[in-house]
Amino acid sequence: MTFAIPVVLVLLAAIAGLFAIVTARYISLWFQAVVSGTPISLFNIIGMSLRKIPPRLIVTARINAFKAGLKTISVNDLETHFLAGGHVHDVVRAMIAADKANIPIDWRQATAIDLAGRDLFEAVKTSVNPKVIDCPANGTFILAVARNGIELKVRARVTVRTNIKQLVGGATEETVIARVGEGIVNAIGSSENHQAVLASPQRISKLVLEKGLDAQTAFEILSIDIADLLIGENVGARLRADQAESDMRVARAMAEERRAMAVALEQENVAKVRDAEAQIPQAMAQALMKGHLGVLDYQRYQNIKADTAMREAIAQSEETPEEPLHAKRS
To answer: Which H or E run contains 129?
Structure first.
């Protein structure tokens, strides 16, 4: 009996030493939470490590949130968001910034935004300090044509701030740039001439803002400012010239078609005349045999035919220009 007591004492001392070694690394976190006014159970801190959750991250986030006045965020909320793959430190920092800026946002909404892959802290910063987006973003120009055919080159700057409520599921910055570009093209296209646009560029901004281009996006458009407005080429004149060239080609094709049809018709008529002329001797022979045509009539027909051939030869010689004297001599 006397031998068993030292063994028990040694065993208890070993267990106590092991417990002290295990808990020594968590004592500082527990003490930090206690002196910060947000006591967290030491066994809860040890349990975080067993659940593969970094205790220092959770304890620090809990203290920061509590000190900033966000007392409704519990340790369990922080652990759950970490296990879900969220960024606990960034969400807490963003909620503190939103609370100081009087931007209403709760824990559930904040964690949903973070898990959706959006930078919540950056969104809060943009809500407080609006950002400027170049449209188009690559430094080029938006090309639009007024009704008189003159092309205008436009570069705009869009001032936006983040719409926290539409951050999850809302369209991104690229959609805002595309919509603003489309609105500028429509506004210039509806102008009677380019002089009206150059005289009042703010008219473009007004028409674009009235279209509500920020609907279903993660941003709220505050203003659209025309940074550059340049005159391009005369697109209307070039299009009319191209149309005239195209019309001329069509007319030439149609004329060539009519000429080909006329030539074909002429060849067909010539063939018919030749067929008819080939039948004349046979018809005359039959007329002589039947007594419808006499010898004198046939002789008179030959004389008329010869006279006609002579007249045609004379007419052709008159139409041909005379050769020069040196050509005749040669």
So the answer is: none
Q: Which residues have CB under 8 Å from 103's CB, separation 6+?
A: 124, 127, 128, 164
**Which of the 8 DSSP states describes residue 168?**
T
Mean pLDDT of all residues belonging to the chain: 82
For residue 322, what are the CA distances in angstroms to 62, 317, 319, 326, 327? 118, 9, 9, 12, 10
Q: What is the DSSP letter of 324?
A: P
304-310 long-range Cβ contacts below 8 angstroms, 24+ apart: none
Q: Give per-residue pLDDT as tens, 52-111.
A: 888 888 888 898 888 888 888 888 999 999 999 988 988 999 889 888 888 888 888 888
Average pLDDT over residues 167-180: 81
DSSP characters over 170-216: -B-HHHHHHHHHHHHHHHHHTSS-HHHHHH-THHHHHHHHHTTTTTT
pLDDT higher than 80, residue 9:
no
Q: Identify the helix (H) or strand (E) that includes residue 77.
A: helix 75-83
Checking if the pLDDT of 292 tops 80, the result is no
42 touches 20 (CB < 8 A): no
pLDDT, greater one: 36 or 4:
36
Contact of 225 with 157, CB cutoff 8 Å: yes
Compute the CA torsion angle 240, 246, 249, 254 (nearest 10 deg). -110
- Integer CA distances (angstroms), 121 to 22, 86, 129, 173, 325, in order: 36, 13, 12, 17, 105
Helix (H, G, I), strand (E, B) or coil at 1: coil
